[in-house]
Amino acid sequence: MLHAEIRQTPERPISRAFGLVFPKPEDMAKLSPADRRLGSLLAAESGVGNVTIPDRETAPAGQAKSADVVMGATELGEIIGIDLARLLDGRMLVQGTSGAGKSWTLRRLIEQTHGRVQQIIIDPEGEFKSIAERYGHFHVEAHKLDTAALALLGARIRAHRLSVLIDMSELDREGQLQAIAAFFESLINAPRAHWHPCLVFVDEAHLFAPFGGQSTAATSVRKAAIGAVTDLMSRGRKRGLCGILATQRLARMAKSVVSEMHNFVVGLNTLDLDIRRAAETIGWDASKAFDRLPMLEPGDFVAVGPAFSRSPAVLRVGGVETHHRGARPALSAPDDIDAEEAAQLLDLEALMEASAEDDEIRDENALIPSLKAIRAFIRDPAFAVAGRIYAELKAIAPSGARVSDMPAGLQSTAEDIAAGLALLDQFGALEFMGDGEDRAARIEKGMLACL
Ligand SMILES: Nc1ncnc2c1ncn2[C@@H]1O[C@H](COP(=O)(O)OP(=O)(O)OP(=O)(O)O)[C@@H](O)[C@H]1O
Ligand SMILES: [Mg+2]
């Protein structure tokens, strides 16, 4: 495609056959300032003439179409719409510090797209219940389902195109990761007949796809969850799944997830690292980002990407119809309570007594399961004789010894030997052969390999 007129001069012929192409001015406007300068120099050099390249912010605006979802408006009152089809293709990431208005923005998008496309809302904080109450999303309490049940649920949601709210607020962090892995995998693996367009809203998405060591969960659990979220973002597209993710920090999100995004909505940022990452993401130079991102008000965002009717645009996200629970509680002075009354209200003594009683159990419960098993083994009354049996059998391995010979050989009673053997057997340490008088025991094959 040749957008610009090329003046061919006899002294400097330019062959059209090589397809010399200059982008449209508004496309040039999307380049970084350095590339833009280079572009205009090249344009002048090759005889295209003086190309006036508009500043990124004043790039010609595409008109918001009536089919667009209205996201908000610029300071000048220009409506910023989202093209749903393009959104489905390019997904979206909403980023900003705590209080920037991310959850509000998700709520706005949920409300505005309700009834036009299936919606799945992943709610780690239990913030979106009012949406379900108002619009009839089926409310699922994830902690009441195990992973197998969540996988089945995912398949059914796809099959029946149900809009649902998955409330994960009662799950611990590891439980949330396990739940998301099982649920997303089932959404992605749904049969082709069920590949309908569906928006998947995920608030606090870094919890489910944490970068590197940002999560305390076991590596395998974390990997499975990151894999599932990445899959949702990449393989999900052809399957009609469109992730709309919100996170406080880009640095906390797995890179594999961020790299799948084409639409970004970036709000208030205050930390240096966040501002730099945000600037890279929206294509601003650092000085502009440092000037402007920390000054944004809650609800103000920079929107960049093919889904927006005008991009990049600084916009104020529009209002919401349902009650938003993200606000911090209003300031109010606490009641004046003296120490005696406080102790009574807290019932501190009873709490301390109960804690002392719990100490023993708590210590035991805090142990990792393998350690608990070893403790149980050592505490068993038959531990000593089991140790002696094991030592004798180890000496003659891989041969074994007749059980009936053991009491004499170990100067022990038949009863003690039986208890010792039972204990070793319980831990899979022995193999038994034969019956009755001829019954013999030897050290189990797998154990032998470690001797
Ligand atoms: N578009 C908006 N219009 C008006 N007020 C807004 C808007 N966006 C956010 N706010 C105000 O800012 C508050 C915080 O917004 P929100 O709960 O969405 O923040 P957040 O970015 O999700 O924060 P966190 O990361 O802590 O969850 C809201 O309760 C609301 O009062
Ligand atoms: Mg929030």
Keywords:
451 residues, alpha/beta, Rossmann fold, 3 domains, 11-stranded mixed β-sheet, 3-stranded antiparallel β-sheet, 14 strands, disordered N terminus, binds magnesium ion
How would you summarize the topology of this molecule?
Elements: H1 25-28, H2 33-45, E1 69-74, E2 79-82, H3 84-90, E3 92-95, H4 102-113, E4 118-123, H5 129-135, E5 138-141, H6 147-160, E6 164-167, H7 173-188, E7 198-202, H8 219-234, E8 241-247, H9 255-258, E9 263-266, H10 272-282, H11 286-292, E10 300-304, E11 313-317, H12 339-346, H13 348-366, H14 369-379, H15 383-396, E12 401-402, H16 406-409, H17 414-426, E13 430-433, E14 440-443, H18 445-448
Parallel strand pairs: 3-8, 3-9, 4-6, 4-7, 5-6, 7-8
Antiparallel strand pairs: 1-2, 1-11, 9-10, 10-11, 12-14, 13-14
Helix pairs in contact: 6-7, 7-8, 10-11, 15-17
Précis, in short:
By secondary structure, the chain is of the alpha/beta class.
What does this molecule look like?
This protein is an alpha/beta fold and 451 residues long. It has three domains: 16-58, no CATH class; 69-317, Rossmann fold (3-Layer(aba) Sandwich); 361-448, Orthogonal Bundle (Arc Repressor Mutant, subunit A). It has 18 helices and 14 strands. The protein has helices spanning 25-28, 33-45, 84-90, 102-113, 129-135, 147-160, 173-188, 219-234, 255-258, 272-282, 286-292, 339-346, 348-366, 369-379, 383-396, 406-409, 414-426, 445-448, and strands at residues 69-74, 79-82, 92-95, 118-123, 138-141, 164-167, 198-202, 241-247, 263-266, 300-304, 313-317, 401-402, 430-433, 440-443. The strands form two sheets. The chain has an eleven-stranded mixed sheet with strand order 2-1-11-10-9-3-8-7-4-6-5, with helices on both faces. The protein has a three-stranded antiparallel sheet with strand order 12-14-13. A hairpin with a 4-residue loop joins β1 and β2 (79-82). α6 runs parallel beside α7, α7 (173-188) packs parallel to α8 and α10 crosses α11. It is elongated. Residues 1-20 and 53-61 have low confidence and may be disordered. The structure holds adenosine-5'-triphosphate and magnesium ion. This is DUF87 domain-containing protein. InterPro entries: AAA+_ATPase, HerA-like, HerA_central, P-loop_NTPase. Residues 88-251 form the AAA+ ATPase domain. It comes from Aminobacter carboxidus. It holds the Pfam family DUF87.
